[in-house]
């Protein structure tokens, strides 16, 4: 197995920029710890743990996107849809920490950059895109899957743009920012399609068995989908 | 059923994750990913340095000393899942332990579509 899941390695972005990113990441994680503590309860905590584990597994599975190029799930959109923005960002951040510290995937000095791009930015973007969409189109299994697809898709090029911003500020390479922007966004739209598909299928599967556990729609579930005291009421017609 | 149901879902999810990381990962694409490809094509890949952790026996999702690529990568995947499970479930249990489940309450959401 030749795993190429390469997050930002050491060296791409200079030390000062990486250090500032580290500080921002720590602040972001602190905010998320506080937010997640208020939101999680004994019912939702196990699912949050599973989401972190699942995203780690999925990030190992690079899929081909174009000639000589692969992509892998970032997982931010998936995480925030299932367990909320704070816990979701934390789950991806834990994945990135374990990858960097245990498997040397992504540079140590770049951990802050990677957490910002793949954990924090995707969480914010994925959350607002998903919530905005379900507000407009409503909540049913197909609609939730469509919203999850779009949210997943959008997070990837935006995450790539976050890298471009970091490159513009502190990139050590001499390639013009415009060139990097064009190349990064192009390939990451393709990867985003894969991200959207995985996000939609996973959210769709959870919604099928336990719609009440999909945090992104927890306050918008049609009454017939609410959990009763000892069973889940599922729609008879499947809408 | 709700609490038990959550653990059934979590159990199934853990088995799937173990299978993906321990077995399916062998078949993952080994082409460079988006960022690496761009860096290579545009000419700034050379600015990458090896992680200070690159000498770890678990670096690059393998287990040093295990010759079979399939076994080495699979074991690394399983190790990753175990570590993630300990940290993930531990962290979120700590964050959620103080609160009883609130989503169980019926009819609290006036907003529901």
What does this 3D model show about the protein?
Chain A has 239 residues and is mainly alpha-helical. Chain A has one domain (15-225): Orthogonal Bundle (Arp2/3 complex 21 kDa subunit ARPC3). Helix content of chain A is 66%, strand content 3%. Chain A is built from 7 helices and 2 strands; from the N terminus they run ααββααααα. Chain A has a two-stranded antiparallel ribbon. In chain A, α2 packs across α4 (85-103), α3 (76-83) crosses α5 (111-137) and α3 packs across α6 (141-170). In chain A, 62% of the residues are buried. Chain B is mostly helical and 113 residues long. Chain B has a domain at 13-28 and 50-97. Chain B is built from 3 helices and no strands. Chain B is extended. The interface between A and B is large, with 95 and 84 residues.
Jot down its keywords:
heterodimer, A: 239 residues, mainly alpha, Arp2/3 complex 21 kDa subunit ARPC3, two-stranded antiparallel sheet, 66% helix, 3% strand, disordered C terminus, B: 113 residues, 3 helices
Give a quick rundown of the structure.
Chain A has seven helices and two strands.
Q: Report the sheet-strand fraction of chain A.
A: under 5%
Rounded average pLDDT of chain B = 87
Oligomeric form of this entry?
heterodimer
Structural class of chain A: mainly alpha
Number of helices of chain B: 3
Percent of residues in helices of chain A: 55-70%
Mean pLDDT across the residues of chain A is 93
Helical residue percent of chain B? Answer: 40-55%
Give the CA-based shape of chain B.
extended
User: What is the CA-CA span between the terminal residues of chain B?
Assistant: 25 Å
**Secondary structural class of chain B:** mainly alpha
Find the count of extended strands of chain B (DSSP E, 2+ residues).
0
CATH architecture of chain A: Orthogonal Bundle
Model regions low in confidence, pLDDT < 50 over at least 5 residues of chain B: 103-113
């Amino acid at each position: 197995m030749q795993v190429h899941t390469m997050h930002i390695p050491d060296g791409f972005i200079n030390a000062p920029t990486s250090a500032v990113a580290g500080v921002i990441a720590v602040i972001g994680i602190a905010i998320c710890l506080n937010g997640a503590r208020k939101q999680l309860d004994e019912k939702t905590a196990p699912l949050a743990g599973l989401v972190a584990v699942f995203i780690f597994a999925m990030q190992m599975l690079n899929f081909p996107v174009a000639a000589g190029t692969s992509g892998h799930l970032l997982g931010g959109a998936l995480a925030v849809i299932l367990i909320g923005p704070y816990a979701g960002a934390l789950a991806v951040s834990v994945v990135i920490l374990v990858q960097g510290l245990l498997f040397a995937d992504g540079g140590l000095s770049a951990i802050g950059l990677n957490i910002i791009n793949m954990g924090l930015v995707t969480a914010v973007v994925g959350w607002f895109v998903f919530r905005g969409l379900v507000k407009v189109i409503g909540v049913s299994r197909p609609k939730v899957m469509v919203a999850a697809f779009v949210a997943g898709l959008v997070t990837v090029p935006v995450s790539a743009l976050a890298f471009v911003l970091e490159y513009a500020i502190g990139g050590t390479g001499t390639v013009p920012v415009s060139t990097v922007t064009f190349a990064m966004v192009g390939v990451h739209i393709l990867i985003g399609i894969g991200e959207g598909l995985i996000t939609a299928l996973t959210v769709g599967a959870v919604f099928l068995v336990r719609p009440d556990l999909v945090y992104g729609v927890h306050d918008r579930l049609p009454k017939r989908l609410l959990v009763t005291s000892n069973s889940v009421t599922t729609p008879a017609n499947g809408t | 059923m709700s609490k038990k149901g959550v653990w059934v879902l979590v159990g199934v999810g853990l088995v799937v994750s173990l299978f993906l990381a321990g077995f399916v990962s062998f078949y993952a694409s080994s082409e460079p990913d988006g960022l690496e490809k761009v860096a290579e094509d545009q000419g700034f890949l050379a600015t990458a340095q090896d992680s200070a952790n690159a000498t770890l026996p678990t670096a690059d999702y393998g287990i040093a000393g295990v010759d079979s690529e399939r076994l080495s990568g699979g074991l690394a995947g399983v190790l990753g899942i175990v570590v993630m499970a300990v940290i993930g479930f531990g962290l979120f249990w700590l964050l959620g332990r103080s609160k009883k489940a609130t989503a169980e309450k019926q009819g609290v959401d006036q907003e529901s579509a």
